[in-house]
Amino acid sequence: MELALALVIGALTAAGVYLLLRSRSFDMILGLTLLSYATNLLIFSAGRLVVGKPPVLKPGVETVLANYTDPLPQALVLTAIVIAFAMTAVTIVVAMRSRADNGDDHVDAGGEGMP
Amino acid sequence: MLELLLALPFLMAAWVLLARNVSRRTTAWLAGVAPLAGLAILIALTPAVLGGEVPQVSHPWIEPLGLAFSLRLDGLAWMFASMVLAIGALVVMYARYYLDAREDAPKFFAYLLLFMGAMLGMVLAGNLLLLAVFWELTSISSFLLIGYWSHDREAREGARMALTITGAGGLALLGGVILIGQVVGSYELDAVFAAREAIQAAPTYPAILALVLAGIFTKSAQFPFHFWLPHAMAAPTPVSAYLHSATMVKAGVFLLARLHPALAGTEMFFYVVTSVGAATLLVGAWNAIFQHDLKGLLAYSTISHLGLITLLFGLSTPLAVVAGLFHILNHATFKASLFMAAGIIDHETGTRDMRRLGNLRGLLPTTSALAIIATLAMAGIPLLNGFLSKEMFFAQALEVPSDTMRIVVTVAAFLAGILGVAYSLRFVHDTFFGDGPRAVEREVHEPPLFMRAPVGILVVVCLAVGIAPAWTIAPALEAAARGVLGPDLPEYSLALWHGINLPLLMSLGGIVGGVVLYFGLRRLFNVHAIARRAFGRHLFRINTRAVLGVARRFTFRVTNGSLQRSLWWVVVAVVALGLVPAVPGLLASVEAGAGQPMPPIGWALCVLLLAATATTVALHRQRLVALIVVGAVGLGVSVVFVFLSAPDLALTQLLVEMVTVALMLLALNYLPQESLKSNTRARRWRDAAIALVAGTGIGGLAYAVMTRPADTVAGELLARSLPEGYGSNVVNVILVDFRGFDTLGEITVFGIAGLVVHALLRRARIAATEVMPGEPDRLPMPANLSHLLFPFALAVSAYLFLRGHNQPGGGFIAGLVLAIPLLLQYVLLGSRYVESRMGFDYTRWIGIGLIVALLTGVAPMLLFGLPFLTSGHAEPRLPLIGEVPLASAMGFDIGVYLVVFGGAMLILSMMGTVKPPKARKKRVVTLPSGAEAS
Amino acid sequence: MSPVLDIALTALLAIGSFFVLVGSLGLVKLSDFLKRLHGPTKATTLGVGCILVASIGYHAWLGDGLALGLREILITVFLFITAPISAHLMARAALALAPDQRPTLPDGETPEAPAVPEPGEGSAGGDGDGRG
Amino acid sequence: MLQALSPHLPVLPILLPLLFGAVALMFERRGIGLQRAIGWTGMLALLLAVGALLAQADTGAITFYLLGDWPARLGIALVADRLSAGLVATTTLLAVACLLYACAGWDRRARHFHGLFQLQLAGLNGAFLTGDLFNLFVFFEVMLIASYGLLLSGGRGARMRAGLHYVVFNITASTLFLVALGLLYGLLGSLNMAEMGARVAVLSPDDAALVRAASGLLLVVFCAKAALLPLYLWLPNAYARAPAAVAALFAIMTKVGVYSVLRVYTLVFGDGPGELAGWAWPWLFWTGLLTLLLATLGALAASTLRMLVAYLVIASAATLFIAFALSTPATVGAGLYYLVHSTFVTAGLFLVMDLIRGQRGRAGDALDYAGPLRRNAPLGALFGIGAVSVAGLPPLSGFIGKALLLDAVPDGYRMWVWGTVLLTSLLTLVALARTGSQVFWRAEPWPADVRPPSPPLRAQWAGAGLLLAYGIGLTLWGAPVVRYAQAAAQQVLEPAAYMQAARERTPQIREPSP
Amino acid sequence: MNRLLPSPPLSVAVFVLWLLLVGDFSPGQLALAAVMALLLPLLAGLLQPERAHFGRTRTILVLSRRVLWDMLLSNIEVARRILGPERALTPGFIWVPLDLQNIHGITALASIITLTPGTLSAELTEDRRHLLVHAFNLKDADATVAEIKARYEAPLKEIFP
Amino acid sequence: MTDIAVLVALHVVGLAMLMSLWRLLRGPTVPDRILGLDTLYVNTIAALILFGMYLRSSVFFEAALVIAMLGFVGTVMLSKYVLRRDIVE
Ligand code: NA
Ligand code: NA
Hints:
The structure holds six protein chains of six kinds. Chain A is mainly α. In chain A, 63% of the residues lie in helices and 0% in strands.
């Protein structure tokens, strides 16, 4: 299970990084979206993988970590999701405006540049 | 007293600047107050100083740095201060008549006074660091003075050159001073003098010497840093007279004298300083001969004389020091008067070019007479002050202990004597005798008396000192020498006549040689025809241009404004700093790690995610398609959350996914439908390679972390959630209680996102990439059904909110469950319709939501003195209904709810209502055959 | 668990998952978009409905309480409300992309047609297999 | 009331701007007058609170504030020590000047200015005060998103493109921050920095490699925010295109990255007994030197006034990295003084450049050719003061900062640091002299047939002047500041005291953690 | 039917929905459900373009039973078709002329058509007089139209007069 | 038996999801992809319910409810985009 999730995280990261390195605003936004999935899964996985023990306390079940999964990474991911959404919204709007103002959705003024 | 002395120039500079509207004469008088009053103070202090006392004051400044405001008036400082003030006063007087009526006199005098103050501060400083402070201040103020005629390119360039060279030296000096301070443990001069042995024995001594001398040599225009000085001649002549005879260039030799007790006496000091001095002496003198510009000749001559002084201090014998100090004074007097005379000539004839001048002795009789006397002093003709110090110099040269150096120095001295006479002759001959003046625009006549007076005064001093040194200059010189050499002064005689000895013969030989040389040279080739080669400036220009070019090229190569490149470097940095060091840990975890087994359904999910991810990349250029495919990735991630015990996360991810799709679709309307291929194949491969490395690394790290035993604070969170956080959905308790502060920040971010979108789109007019013809589609059936759904959605939203503390849900999720159906109404009914029916000011919702959340947190502060966000709990009994469990955290969650709803709606509604540009015509789209507009 | 209930639940689950599978199979197998549209919008909806009924029974039997189980009916209700909206809009979208597929009104009136230009390679058109 | 609030001092610098920001948003439709009143009331309240906080921190106390009354390891704790209080004070003083400048009219043009401004302050102060690593992330985001608004509101054209770069770059960095946080939580099991530090000290070697990797990622994030080589490429354009008051406020933003490095790499990966102790410093030292050099070249090459200042901002951050990387009390103290100085002065220069731009007509920002200039003597003076100060020339604050740093460099590094710092000072001086010469000396007189620009407004003078006056204040009354900085450095380099304060601070009504 | 209670059936539905959601019939929840039932339709009513007017509500039950049964039967048919060879399929469009004019009725009809397998409502003309239906396996167009009108439209006309 | 049936059904639904995904990834037309995504959402509801049965837990109810209630919103917006480009007119 861990291997599968690691695989997914790796694939999402690679895809995200590749798209992030494209030169059109929308491609980068897609890349950032994939990256944020990867990030969320990674943070989430830091609480270790537990099937079927959501951190919603049930009466009569002892409140120890053996019976529930780690809730903290979940809270972190929630915050991360929300912030990522806010950032995506801003990026999209800036991309729209940049395209409208500059007449091109290429992110750089002078075309591509190699480092 | 010393404070006042130092403050005067600065105060008067400010006064001059503030009183801009007074007449030029008043301005000059105000400016004159500083040196005159300063002289008065100095005179008051003179008896004490001559008596061997050293008046001192010290104020703390930056104690941790060792920088104190210490002033100290010993003989050396007294001598220099007198020179600075006296010549300063004369220059002010001169400048009042020199400056043109159109020129900004207050600015000029303010700069001059600023410089005077800096100079005074430097000579009075009793703390080396303070000295360095004033040192740089002289560089800055001289920059302003040299560039005063800023319309003139020469002036601007000269100023920058001077600043660059002397500024560099100043920085080096700062380094040297700090090194001294580290050896001594203090920057106070007395301590530094006392630590002479320690300094010279310190391993950093060579560095100290190098740095300090770098400062000194640049400032006093020693070879090879001398070239800035001639270019500084673009300054108004009073400035040259002041800076380049008496003050700024003397700052270097002053420091040489000042630090002489601490630094001199080693072989290194001797060889370096002596050789540089000798080289400068000759280079300056030789070049002076071939200048056509009066001031250029004087500038090179100044360089030469500064070399002489440096050489003397390099010799380091007590008598050489005395000679050096003496020559400082002498040079200041004759050179200042010569500059002023040159200024008068320039002022009256409109040129300083000796090729056009000549025969001025008839036209400017007084000025000519004065200038000729001063020139003779410069050439070292007996009965004038220059002769005396030159004689002493020759005597010292002959007494250098080392054989080679003695020969070198003596030869240099003799040659310099010859050359000095030669260029003096040229000055006198080409200006005042012969034919001319040629091609002079103005009618030449004597300037006002007060412009000649300063020259006269200085020439009188030259004569007085030259004729009766013992009566005039001896006490001052003695005091100054005591400042350098300490109380035990060597035997020396300032008499005019020491009998016929080798120095006298050298002097005479020099004079003869000079005359022969000058006329010989004139015979050999036309001095006038020799092109003025500004080799130094050329070099400086080349260097500046080279540095600038390198900077430009480099900067452009590094930062070409490409975002891709920035991001590429981030990825590289991640790999280098984060992934490479992880390799041993990863290998270990792969060896040790054994994950949990997974059912086939899990693999199906994994395949789903991988396939959708790969397809996103493959199809990313077809944007709509990519968007749909990404939707599958998002759904897959939500399902992962569900399976791995995170219902809240799954809910949030799902809802955010929906809103994100809306957002992207709204944006896609204003972006191209497709990405153009704009990257080369090589670059795609390169990016793919680094992306794979990054993916492998991050995936590997995740794997390593997942397979490691955990040791977290989570157990405690679980245990305390219900009894202290009053909720059984621990994730929600964390969000609104344990880490409610994070959530506060998070909703702030969310709200701000709404504001930013609003700010960016409110007045924006953006053309859609494609405009569909016809009226907006009305979709009555979907609208109707979705409307049926709306109250249910409201109920579900309320349900999720109320249950959130104990079951999956909460303010954020509920807020989106409220927003999405409303968004659907926007989609199906159009924004105008929705907003006409529900006129929401979403910005305000954000504000209110934030305030609600804040007040919930603040209440326990104000009511119980408990920290911000401390939660409370109550179970009030209501009639009929029974006990209602209320956690104060729910109030916080209401704030979350409001902000999320307001923010999401603000964003979406703003994006939905972007207006097309006013003037431009809509793009008409050709219809496919068979279809018509409705 | 009583055998009757056990068998009933198993049957429901079997039927439910069968229909879900059939819906997706139609999606994969059929050659034309409008044909494909029929499978998922109905078979799947029904399949999910069956599974939900099974779930209600299952949770009721386990003792989670019928009250809590019953709320799963809501899922079915919402599905039944929303599935037609989706199907309708997708059909419209498909027709808009392939206007020649759309028949004229029987009495000769020209029906209004949402005119949609080709939105660019691949983004909305594709090559369209079959008669698409 | 005041008495009641005094235990809450660490949280007030965050709450007050949040509250006033929210109020400003609520009354946005009531006109600019009310907005300004709200903004200035908030500013005043913040000044009072920050003053009190500074006084408290100056006693040497490390104050832990347990939000929600939870023990630090469970909840989020704010920590006010000398370092954070000092930075909060710097931010606040800077903000006063920026607000002053903006009130000359920019706040009218940029939508939501006052709300965003206050929220940005909340973000900055939060980042400086929090003792929790994830909370640091959150405040980074608050600060950044508010900065997007401030940067882009009312802007168009090239600023939008620069804004896009800025936004995407920062989001990438933030994503990386989250990755690092996820890994660190997975490995260390806590987010409280003191707790994390304690756990790092007792890591097994296998885990150490992973933690080292995670902390490497974190370093990349901070360096990206602080604009360290090779991650500074985004900054010049973004800052050079920002509206003046905003660019001035941004002067503190890179410092947040620098601060985070200092805090995290002394407290969590600091000189404890663990094997990760101080691993980052050598990296930072060398890249700091290189960045300083390149940024100075950038300043030399700058083609616009504001680009020049933007590069100077990078150079100042690089200098700080050098100082902090040497990690002795003396260098860190020098660095902290330099931080305060460079923040004020670069911010002041942004404002001065904007004023100059306004007086140059169509030449505007360009350095490539000398346009006309409407003569204005005080403007030249302000430029001069700023230039002298930023180049590190005597007698202004930059000199004191550099001298402190040079004095403090330990033996082995002296040649490198001195060589670079002195050389770059000189190059900066050359760049500024060139700029001043180009703008003021080469300027043509204002053409008679063109209406001259109106002189700067009083609020603009006040804003720019105030910032430079701070610099002069740092010069004249520098000793207490230097002493404070050195004490702060001492404190920050002794994480043991911090951890002890964390342990000793117990909740008021709850049981402390076992 | 007044301003405070715009749509009693909707209010009832919300009431039931709430109780089902919370799965708790305590007095507190009943009260809350009542509040929701009163409040939410009011809020939602702000957006309602056209109000629903109900005729014979009893027909709803009859219709529901019929629809459910049809769904079940014809789903089996569709499943067979999907699993069988595709060649046997003869899909096609039909225009169903509408007598119903009430938009709610039309919506319901369209939904029912979509939910019952084999047919799918694809479009409603602007004048609301024709519904375009796509049939999965069209044998006799007129018969299908007649069946739709008889089985579904007629009862709907009673419910939404 | 029910427990086994649940597990089997879960896997059958998983298979159905993969089939929907295939259509989503394969296209060829945009409506096909939209349909694929829509079906994937509905399949997910089934999977969630079955998973809840498998774990004997009802915590996944909310997620299923939200998908059932709002999952179609994506479909609506995508279709509207194909129809009009401007999804909020
Ligand atoms: Na709390
Ligand atoms: Na729109």
